[in-house]
Amino acid sequence: MAGVSLGSELALDHDVVLLEAESSLGVHSTGRSAALFLSGYGPPPVRELTRRSEAAFARLSDLPGVPALLRPRGGLFTAWDEPAAAALAATVSRRPTMTVPTADRVRELCPVLRVDDVVACAFDEDVRDIDVAALHGHYATALRRRGGRITTGARVVGATRSGSGWEVRTADGRTWRADAVVNAAGAWGDRVAELCAGIGHGLSPRRRTVVVARTSAPVPADWPVVAEAGEAWYFRPEGGALLMSPGDETEVPPGDVHPDPLDVALVLERVNAATTLDLRGVRTSWAGLRTFTPDRAPVVGPHPEEPTLFCFVGQGGYGIQTAPALAEVGAELFRTGTLADTALAAAIDPDRTRVLVAEELARPASPRSPA
Question: Residue 368's pLDDT is what?
């Protein structure tokens, strides 16, 4: 999503070539997203980008041939002990779209939830589904329509400055020349930054597991997403079955990740403990990559060591819901070097990651728990 969204914006007034390492677009993150719009999710700069994206989603949905990109879903958040209930209550106090439903209302929203065991619940009417395929398709189409090119199977293996521009080499032996390079390589963002500028951003790719479980009866399509407030699990309807995740964030090297059977078993156990579903079988499962910076805000702007290397990485678990606004912000920074919103500019400035990485390296390692 990162490459096609920013590329489509830049193609309005630049010659853009998007180099995709894989044989098709959106393999590792975009195509494996849970596709939820959560306006209260993430740190403050992410929430601001999400707020801006809401209006952009509406504008895009009004374009010819683009379906409604956001659809109502609702979110039911649950706390199962007193500390979690206190944290959830604090969240409700800050979120005008969140309410505290009665036990009867919770049973209406999700009849299988073990309501008598729940300490607290909150319902957020603002949670929505995102049509990820339509959004990605719009950006890829717009990029091509504006004269941009998308080349698949073009893994970058080297990059050197050549005069005032760049020579970029791909694994298929080709060389590409450009005035500037945009690093929108997701989990491979540090590798590209190191190739081009000698230093990365402290990115951490994390595996997130998704499981679609068989149920004894079709799951109603109008159920909300139901989640443990601390993100230990969530589930929602998916084509008559149940899509769910254990909320895992296992640090892994960049690559084609697959579910760990222990994580699959764990989410079955957690959801069974919270519901009367008695899930026993899995229809399918997959894993995707969510790549975070140490402070969980994205990295957007010129690389501190190489101003013609533009950084557009570290979207974490928020890349789809922030895509429209982040593409617009990235294009503005690329063209002008500045943002009117100086607080947002500082929060996503690539230069900050040097300090964050140094702080991370200086922090004592956490003691290991007994085996």
Answer: 35
